[in-house]
UniProtKB/TrEMBL annotation:
Pathway of action: Polyol metabolism; myo-inositol degradation into D-glucuronate; D-glucuronate from myo-inositol: step 1/1
Entry binding sites for Fe cation: H127, H151, D152, H223, H248, D281
Cofactor(s), names only, from the UniProt record: Fe cation
Biological process, per Gene Ontology: inositol catabolic process
Source organism (scientific name): Rasamsonia emersonii (strain ATCC 16479 / CBS 393.64 / IMI 116815)
Protein name: Inositol oxygenase
InterPro entries (alphabetical): Inositol_oxygenase
Matching Gene3D superfamilies: Hypothetical protein af1432 (1.10.3210.10)
Length: 314
């Protein structure tokens, strides 16, 4: 059946609950990244300019974050199977969920918090603009600034086909081959997954071949994978931007060095791009919200530059 456009029908969701677990995941990833830096660069690490005045008080929530995150990943690691991922991709291709401009999508994503908790200090658009502005201040290319702005837009999935939080946010990993111990909480966290111990899916290469390239690998379905499939054919963003979108939560790969045996030469170049993007995603958050109306004209110009079709099919 050919995809058809439908009027936007957004599910009523507890957006604050999704953003709360997303923040906890980010906190754990920030702490893990900082510990790795201390181990590798003790006494030599210099903070990036945009992060020098960052309030580190959120790190006091580490224990709570770990408990919440561990429970989240228990569900995600149980339910992200080959069968689920095939079904999710088939449903993605079967219809158009909504048609909106990129900026309209940003405003809709902003309601993830606002609908459920209007007193929350930060919103989705704050994080998007903070990431983009940090990239802009460091003089990075315009396409990378736009990538910073839109990199989390895939969370719109929460309004559409999502079954919960586990198929929207969280670190990503391949399905269809063995779960690597470098995935957060390790291989044993997948023991209740039907693919764990599977005679094919739980072998080193599974359904893949060495050097097949990550374009041919199914990553766990969520906001990264969803947005990647939305924008790759509807924008003129370069391959580096698409890699930043698709792989920014693929921490076992870009941070821990897992699954490199599946990479081809193109992936090696994309890895450098994702590693260059990652600090802006992790460390750009601030308690000082950006002036949205002041910044909107600049970013609307960027959107128009890289999205020739103003209305995007989501």
């Amino acid at each position: 059946m050919a995809p058809v456009a439908i009027e936007p029908t957004f599910q009523k969701r507890d957006g604050h609950a999704l953003e709360d677990i997303s923040e906890k995941i980010d906190t754990v990833n920030v702490l893990k990244a900082n510990m790795q830096k201390e181990q590798k660069e003790r006494g030599l690490y210099d903070e990036t300019e945009f992060d020098k005045n960052k309030d580190k008080s959120q790190f006091r929530q580490y224990e709570e974050a770990c408990d919440r995150v561990k429970n989240f990943y228990k569900e995600q690691h149980t339910k992200q199977t080959v069968a689920f991922n095939l079904k999710a991709r088939n449903e993605f291709r079967s219809k158009t969920r909504a048609e909106m401009t990129v900026w309209e999508a940003i405003e809709k994503l902003n309601t993830l918090i606002d609908e459920s908790d209007p007193d929350t200090e930060l919103s989705q658009i704050d994080h998007a603009l903070q990431t983009a502005e940090a990239i802009r201040r460091d003089g990075k290319p315009r396409w990378m600034q736009l990538t910073g702005l839109i990199h989390d837009l895939g969370k719109l999935l929460y309004f559409f086909d999502a079954q919960g939080q586990w198929d929207v946010v969280g670190d990503t990993f391949p399905v269809g081959c063995a779960f690597d111990d470098r995935i957060i909480y390790g291989r044993e966290s997948f023991k209740d997954n039907p693919d764990y111990g599977h005679p094919i899916y739980d072998t080193k290469f599974g359904i893949y071949t060495p050097g097949c390239g990550l374009d041919n690998v199914m990553l766990s379905w969520g906001h990264d994978e969803y947005l990647y499939h939305v924008v790759k054919d509807q924008s003129t963003l370069p391959p580096e931007a698409l890699a930043m979108i698709r792989y920014h939560s693929f921490y076992p790969w870009h941070r821990a060095g897992a699954y490199h045996e599946l990479m081809n030469e193109h992936d090696k170049e994309m890895l450098k791009a994702v590693q260059a993007f990652n600090p802006y995603d992790l460390y750009s958050k601030s308690d000082d919200p950006p002036n949205v109306e002041e910044l909107k004209p600049y970013y609307q110009e960027l959107i128009d530059e890289y999205f020739p079709k103003k209305v995007i099919k989501w």
